[in-house]
Amino acid sequence: MREYSIYSGSGDNFLEVLVKEIEGGLVSSALKRCERGDALSLDGPYGSFVTALAERYSGRYLFVGSGTGISPFHCLARSYPGINYLLLHGVRTEKERFDAEDFDSSRYISCVTRSMHGDYLGRVTGYLREHPTDPQCFCYLCGNSDMIYEAFEILRSQSIPRENLHAEIYF
């Protein structure tokens, strides 16, 4: 059993998750062997990583995801096409920019660490330091715990209120 964020939109007639195969990984390797029509056992959903209805179309959002941590933001962008967001996607190489074309290109910034092919060369935390966030912004972070803790410190130093910070931590 593993926890995954929903990747598909709320209006889609299918349930989709984004899984990166980990060499030697028990669950990701088993999922890769699945074929269309295979039965899987699911439990959930769990958590409360959702936007508040009152601010969904009036607020501004900063989404920060590393690797497959882009999943909930893909879901939100598909579910609420009018939402006002900026997405920072931290990846090692351009090959990890999962379905980047599904996002409005003016709202998607790939922060690439091991290649010269991205919108920003460096980590999402470097981008956050160099481009301060509006304190009124609602900030959602998903991915690696080290990135999230560092990003929280940066955003708090930029006067983002604690109640505007939301996280879904992978490991």
SSE layout:
Layout: H1 26-32, E1 60-66, H2 71-79, E2 84-91, E3 108-112, E4 120-121, H3 124-130, E5 138-143, H4 145-157, E6 165-169
Parallel strand pairs: 1-2, 1-5, 2-3, 3-4, 5-6
Helix pairs in contact: 3-4
Mean pLDDT: 92
Could you please say which CATH topology applies here?
A: Rossmann fold
Number of DSSP-assigned strands: 6
Give me the CATH architecture, please: 3-Layer(aba) Sandwich
Stretches where pLDDT is under 50 for at least 5 consecutive residues are: none
Describe the strand arrangement of the main beta sheet, using strand numbers: 4-3-2-1-5-6
- Largest sheet descriptor: 6 strands, parallel
CATH structural class: Alpha Beta
Percent strand? 15-25%
CATH 4th-level superfamily = Nucleotide-binding domain of ferredoxin-NADP reductase (FNR) module
Q: Tell me the overall shape.
A: globular
Report the span from N to C terminus.
15 Å
Q: What's the helix-strand series? A: HEHEEEHEHE
Assembly type: single chain
The number of helices is 4
- Alpha-beta classification: alpha/beta
Rg, rounded, reads: 16 Å
* Count of individual domains: 1
Proportion of helical residues: 10-25%
Question: What would you say this structure looks like, in words?
Answer:
The protein is of the alpha/beta class and 171 residues long. It has one domain (1-171): 3-Layer(aba) Sandwich (Rossmann fold). The chain has 4 helices and 6 strands. The chain has helices spanning 26-32, 71-79, 124-130, 145-157; strands at 60-66, 84-91, 108-112, 120-121, 138-143, 165-169. The protein has a 6-stranded parallel sheet with strand order 4-3-2-1-5-6, sandwiched between helices. The longest helix has 13 residues, at 145-157. The radius of gyration is 16 Å and the shape is globular. It starts with 25 loop residues before the first helix and ends with a strand. The model has no long low-confidence stretch (mean pLDDT 92).
